[in-house]
Amino acid sequence: MMLRRLIRPARRLPWVYILPVLGLCFIEVLIHRSQYNVPRPAHELDEPFFKGCQEPDVNHPRENAVMVMLARNSERDAANRTIASIENAFNKWFKYPYVFMNDEPWDAKFIETLNKTAGGRATFEVIPKEQWTFPPSMDAKAAKQSMKEQGQRGLPHAGSEGYHHMCRFYSGKFYQLEALKKYKWYWRLEPDVDFTCAITYDPFVHMAKNNKKYGFTIALWEVGTTCPSLFRDIANWKELHNIPSNNLWKAAVQASWVPYPFRQMLAYFMPHTDRFGDMWSLCHYWSNFEIADMDFFRSKGYQDLFEYLDSKGAFTLRGGVTPPSMLWPHDLLYQCPANAPDLQLTEAEVLLGNKPYWPEKPGGVGCRCRCDGDMPRNHPGYCLNKLKQPNTRARPWLTWLL
Ligand SMILES: *[C@@H]1O[C@H](CO)[C@@H](O)[C@H](O)[C@H]1NC(C)=O
Ligand SMILES: *[C@@H]1O[C@H](CO)[C@@H](O)[C@H](O)[C@H]1NC(C)=O
């Protein structure tokens, strides 16, 4: 009798409890997600500094800046192509110096060829061994074993020791290189890159003037398997230092649809989540084209973050922070805007040269761009828009599911 009484009501009752609980969960999720809504700015945050062509203002004082390239002796032709291209598109007017970096001694032939193409403004540095190696805290043998395993799992480049050293070098050591200490700004170049538009203004000058720290051209989804714990590590570091979530942080997070406390429990099993269960959107920008203020990377805050990630083996034990140019052929992913109408300065310009015809298109922003058979394109990617204009409401349906 007692037993029956206990069981019978239990058969009917669940919905009476479950429905309100579901309702509360739903409301909790809505409130939680609303904390990640980021207001859309009234206008594009980063308009190009100029549209179309300028007559290069070569009398304006230069910034304290340098063009840098990490290359190997075997990449001489590819490096030469990049330098010829950037000289022609930009640096023949502004004449910034170049620093080439190698983890091995340079071939005389490389130096001769590249210095010549660089207009005699190049120096050639060998990266000190202590900056091109494993973190001091790490057992090199264990690290090598881990790389071997990553390689066997088919992670791109993960099996190569040099690749990990490069990730680590570019992420934290590069800014401390003796040869670069005297510079504030750098423009990173890679072998085998073609600059398809004329850059007729000095981006260093205009970044300084507009208080910009970092410039990039492409933002895409990361290959998630290369860095399963990167976001967790960074989120933990952020928490450790009591850094509040600003809009850019929120814009990089996909707030979870799972109610508390289950999302926090799921976080134990899910990669790319912070410990509260919210997920990184995998959006990141590509560092193979970047113009940046090295003082930012030399700051205590950044170096602290680097040391923290380094101590977690982020650049060695796992795939590291991938410079994705190595994952994708350059000719698949590029920026080549259409040319700005009536702004090509095709008549009687002094430095630019008087060139007869450049295809123009309404809405174009470029200066004398030639996309060489490829479509002109001003990469409209989801990630790029998201980083430029944080707005969680305008998500494509796919990302709602993530
Ligand atoms: C390097 O590039 C320059 C400019 O395009 C070219 O004239 C030169 O032949 C190239 N040198 C080599 C060794 O390929
Ligand atoms: C590069 O060329 C310039 C001018 O020809 C020369 O003065 C300089 O010593 C060269 N640099 C190297 C590293 O060879």
TrEMBL record:
Coiled coil: none annotated. InterPro entries: Glyco_trans_15 (IPR002685), Nucleotide-diphossugar_trans (IPR029044). Keywords: Glycosyltransferase, Membrane, Transferase, Transmembrane, Transmembrane helix. The chain crosses the membrane at residues 12-31. PANTHER family: ALPHA-1,2 MANNOSYLTRANSFERASE KTR1 (PTHR31121), MANNOSYLTRANSFERASE KTR5-RELATED (PTHR31121:SF2). Belongs to the glycosyltransferase 15 family. This is Glycolipid 2-alpha-mannosyltransferase. It comes from Apiospora hydei. The lineage of its organism: Eukaryota, Fungi, Dikarya, Ascomycota, Pezizomycotina.
